[in-house]
Amino acid sequence: MDGLIVVDKPAGMTSHDVVARIRRLARTRRVGHGGTLDPMATGVLIIGVNRATRLLTYVIGSEKSYTATIRLGQSTVTDDAEGEVTATAPAAAVPDEAIRAGLAAQVGEIDQVPSAVSAIKINGERAYKRVREGETVRIPARRVTVHRLEVLDIRRPQGPDVVDVDIDVTCSSGTYIRAIARDLGTALRVGGHLTALRRTAVGGMTLDAASTLEQLEERAPDVVGLPMSEAARRSFPQRVATEEETRVLRHGGPLSAAGIDGPYAVFSPAGDVLAIVSERGGRARAEIVLAPA
């Protein structure tokens, strides 16, 4: 089958581990994922199967939502709980108002420096690999957008002199939640890192539609949750073609413009997705043709 699977990724697995599992369950090699989750993270991981792997380029660019926990008072080499603690500072006396203000300063369009232990390539090599080999890595800041950042709770656990902050974030693709934790700790001069991360949505696909790997095992090999047409409906604006436009588009020809911004999905009169198109020069031209000619 061709389509997308919304997986509720468990902790302790890489995104590549999940892809390998789905390849076995779906009995096909044509499987990919739409946006990496760190091994520590859980939640929404979009998997494309067969022809739907062509949709993943657009899925990767969708806005994303997360719940997370920031621990103030400790810095780590990875900016999350998987890395070695590199510095500590008393944090219990940091007032709630300062925490809220420090997070509010990271809402909107910001220049964010990704974590040094990330998959970003520096001179052709992954940054995390360079760090693990003992190299000091400097990654330039990138412009990202934090659309919403809500503080859910501020907790002061007994024992360690730390503060735990639960947050809910919606942000643009390319935003690092552990960088938000690091930068909050830096602003408050106590250090900070991420102790929990759960992705709750990628574009219009949420945890409500997600399946665990155990549930997919029970359904194998019929593991696709969103067939191609339904996946396109959830991911793009829509346009319905006439019979003549359907014929033209099946062969890769252009359509007249409809005035729709950005890439959108074109459907046949029967409701089957034909192509993902974008408008330029007064014409709607296919970026990818999904229907057979």
TrEMBL record:
Residues annotated as the enzyme's active site: D38 (nucleophile)
- What is the enzyme's main class? isomerase
Query: What are the residue boundaries of the Pseudouridine synthase II N-terminal domain, all occurrences included?
Result: 23-177
- Cited Pfam families: TruB_C, TruB_C_2, TruB_N
Q: Which UniProt keywords apply?
A: Isomerase, tRNA processing
An example of a Gene Ontology BP annotation on this entry?
Answer: mRNA pseudouridine synthesis
What's the Enzyme Commission number for this chain?
A: 5.4.99.25
Query: Which parts of the sequence belong to the tRNA pseudouridine synthase II TruB subfamily 2 C-terminal domain?
Result: 236-290
Cited Gene3D superfamilies: Pseudouridine synthase, PUA domain
SUPFAM superfamilies reported for this sequence: Pseudouridine synthase (SSF55120), PUA domain-like (SSF88697)
Record field: catalytic activity: uridine(55) in tRNA = pseudouridine(55) in tRNA
Q: GO MF annotations for this entry?
A: RNA binding; tRNA pseudouridine(55) synthase activity
Please give the InterPro entries that the UniProt record associates with this protein: PsdUridine_synth_cat_dom_sf (IPR020103), PsdUridine_synth_N (IPR002501), PUA-like_sf (IPR015947), PUA_sf (IPR036974), tRNA_psdUridine_synth_fam2_C (IPR015225), tRNA_psdUridine_synth_TruB (IPR014780), TruB_C (IPR032819)
Q: Keyword check for tRNA processing, yes or no.
A: yes
Q: Highest taxon of the source?
A: Bacteria
Q: Which residues form the tRNA pseudouridylate synthase B C-terminal domain?
A: 178-218
What family, per the record? Belongs to the pseudouridine synthase TruB family. Type 1 subfamily.
Question: What does the record give as the function of this protein?
Answer: Responsible for synthesis of pseudouridine from uracil-55 in the psi GC loop of transfer RNAs.
Query: Mind telling me what this protein is named?
Result: tRNA pseudouridine synthase B
- Lineage, broadest ranks: Bacteria, Bacillati, Actinomycetota, Actinomycetes, Micromonosporales
* Gene this protein is translated from: truB
